[in-house]
Amino acid sequence: MLTRAAMRVASRGASAAALTPARHMSGATTGLLGGNNAVGDIFTPTEDHKQLREMVRAFTKAEVEPQALEHHRDEKFNLPLFRKLGDLGLLGITADPNHGGSGMDATAAVIAHEELSASDPSFCLSYLAHSMLFVNNLSVNGTEDQKARILPSACAGQTIGGMCMSEPGAGTDVMGMSTRATRDGDDYVINGAKMWITNGAVSDTELGDHFVVYARTGDKGGASDLSLFLVEKGMPGFSLGQRIKDKCGMRASYTAELVFEDVRVPAATHLVGGPDREGKAVLSMMRNLELERLTLAAMSLGIARRSIEAMNAYARDRKAFGSSLNRFGQIQRLIADSYAEYAAGKAYVYATASALGLDSAGNRVDSDGVKLYCAAMAKNVADRAMQTMGGYGYCGEYRVEQLWRDAKLLEIGGGTNEAHQKNMARDLSHVETLP
Amino acid sequence: MRVFVGVKRAVDYAAKVRIQADKKAVDISNVKMAINPFCEIAVEEAVRLKEKKVAEEVVAVSIGPKQAQEVIRQALAMGADRGIHVTTDMRVDQELQPLAVAKIMAALTGEHDPSAWLLGKQAIDDDSNQVAQMLAGLLDWPQATFASEVEVSEDKKSATVTREIDGGLQTIEVPLPAVISADLRLNEPRYATLPNIMKAKKKKIDTVDAASLGVDLAGQIEVLEVSEPATREAGSKVEDVDALLAKLKADGLL
Ligand SMILES: Cc1cc2nc3c(=O)[nH]c(=O)nc-3n(C[C@H](O)[C@H](O)[C@H](O)COP(=O)(O)OP(=O)(O)OC[C@H]3O[C@@H](n4cnc5c(N)ncnc54)[C@H](O)[C@@H]3O)c2cc1C
């Protein structure tokens, strides 16, 4: 295998040799999104963001890309590679620096997700579930003790975490969840099942290490019914129901059903945020959903970017009827529409990221909006890439086939399109004029 | 021992370059720039020397415009201790030429007293491969170029360097101080991790105006014209071997 540096030196030579004549180069840099990514633009607010992007991009190219196809085909989660994200400081990217985190902002999280997804969205989904849904959730909502006990190993990649909200019988209708935590002396006793839990398993038989779990602690029929618990592998009664296989996409990310049978957790230590947080989980849920949706939208950007690169190169190099494919109007439309939609989505995502505080709720219109727009955008762009590439595009080796499959999840996970539309229309109904 | 490492900001390896309309240079106005890959290898080696407790201090030096600080920051995030930014507005891919760079480095050497300079063997913009050799000449230090392995002796008075030469590998011993230039296979540079990117922000970068060092910065070489590599003409197909031979003969190639 070529070393990373060798790859760079080699491809530098190759690209110099492949210099295209000037007339083809006139549009080669793409204003806002191309060129230098100057520090100070919305994609790169600070020098730290620039270095972060360069680091994740180099890592993705050298280590994520080469394993993606095989893990996608075999439905295998790459745990050793995942742990390496810990060495890079990415697993705790937004987490409290006093507990092993890197203390960066929502824009940094977007950068990491965009870059990883350009090679392997399903690997990135596991990253998202761990870093955003578990680590960031605990960092924002947990007590100092909980953070000190759990975050250092989770940030280092020694342990794997996830978030349990959905159930076999309740997804979009979150408040309809039936998993229940009943107070019994100093403990809560949890019963129920959670479904579709990313990182719920790390193999066919083994649970992930820790989870934040939403459960019902009341029946008033409102926000005060839900509480958030920490549940850990090894607790009696907590088990792996099944690893869910044969997903359409996100195949290298493990999804599981988790079962809770009289799982006893101490109230003093395992109610996230402290013993007085019973019935107060909806705020944590709202805060975390915003970041989840934003970073899922960021994954769309990586998928779209990679798809456009693939179709653009293919349409330039592939000849039919005596000219390049990109001379045909129908193909030009696929490429140009894709680029414009990608650029619009990217601007929307980064603008939303810059306004999103990690510990505040209140950006719901836009955190739903970016995902609603970008998920469909990525799915359409991947589809156009496949269309442009014909039979080759339909086969795994050319990589857009995986992107096409993975993109669809973004219209379902973290909230369906319809859920976003419902939320947004409700929030917008209070608005008279738009800024 | 104190190790100085040169880090050049060059056009990114993956960037597509085009030529300025006046054909006097490559257009770098909106091109992605990055640390020269060979310099990155040199930084990695210096940091490893520090981790092995051979070096006490690693200083990253870059010569160039304001943005050269970016590659110094990267070296700091990889583990260098501090930086020196020698400022100039001259284009480092062609106006500021190897001899002037070597003179600047020689001037810094007098002031800071490093035990070694670790440099990339060449930069991927001008591909000159001259600075290490010239610097050694100016300082009258031994040089160990194209290093693929560097081992410093226990007393830190010499280094054993394996060099990649045309015929294979050559191992030499050089007394320190010396100039060492890094070849591709010397090491695999680490990633600048997020915690180290954050730590690097607290490290110091001193700034020195190149013009204040009392060296002649003028170029020795004038660029007359920069042109793109010739594009490859389309090939043609022949029916069989006989036709191939006939064609090669007809074209005077056989
Ligand atoms: C690969 C994968 C990973 C996941 N990871 C996690 C995870 O880590 N943690 C977690 O908690 N969950 C996870 N999920 C679950 C995901 O969030 C849910 O699938 C999603 O919220 C939808 O819920 P559901 O599947 O129950 O569908 P339902 O809610 O049953 O929806 C079915 C259909 O009905 C529509 N619908 C429902 N209500 C309405 C309405 N009021 N108006 C109009 N249409 C409506 C929906 O939009 C959808 O089209 C994951 C899912 C997948 C597939």
From TrEMBL, chain A:
Family: Belongs to the acyl-CoA dehydrogenase family.
Stretches assigned to the Acyl-CoA dehydrogenase/oxidase N-terminal domain: 46-157
Domain Acyl-CoA oxidase/dehydrogenase middle: 163-263
Keyword Oxidoreductase found: yes
GO molecular function: 3-methylbutanoyl-CoA dehydrogenase activity; flavin adenine dinucleotide binding
A Pfam family per the record: Acyl-CoA_dh_N
Keywords for this protein: FAD, Flavoprotein, Oxidoreductase
Cofactor: FAD
Chemical reaction(s) catalysed: (2S)-2-methylbutanoyl-CoA + oxidized [electron-transfer flavoprotein] + H(+) = (2E)-2-methylbut-2-enoyl-CoA + reduced [electron-transfer flavoprotein]
Name of the protein described by the UniProt record: Isovaleryl-CoA dehydrogenase
Signal peptide start and end residues: none
UniProt record, GO biological process: L-leucine catabolic process
Key word Flavoprotein present: yes
Residue ranges occupied by any Acyl-CoA dehydrogenase/oxidase C-terminal domain in the UniProt entry: 285-428
UniProtKB/TrEMBL annotation, chain B:
Family of this protein: Belongs to the ETF beta-subunit/FixA family.
Localization of this protein: Mitochondrion matrix
One of the record's GO molecular function terms: electron transfer activity
Record GO cellular component, one term: mitochondrial matrix
Subunit composition and interactions: Heterodimer of an alpha and a beta subunit.
GO aspect biological process, one term: carboxylic acid catabolic process
Domain Electron transfer flavoprotein alpha/beta-subunit N-terminal: 23-217
Domain of life according to the entry: Eukaryota
Function: The electron transfer flavoprotein serves as a specific electron acceptor for several dehydrogenases, including five acyl-CoA dehydrogenases, glutaryl-CoA and sarcosine dehydrogenase. It transfers the electrons to the main mitochondrial respiratory chain via ETF-ubiquinone oxidoreductase (ETF dehydrogenase).
Source organism per UniProt: Cafeteria roenbergensis (Marine flagellate)
Stated name of the protein: Electron transfer flavoprotein subunit beta
Keywords of the record: Electron transport, Mitochondrion, Transport
UniProt signal peptide: none
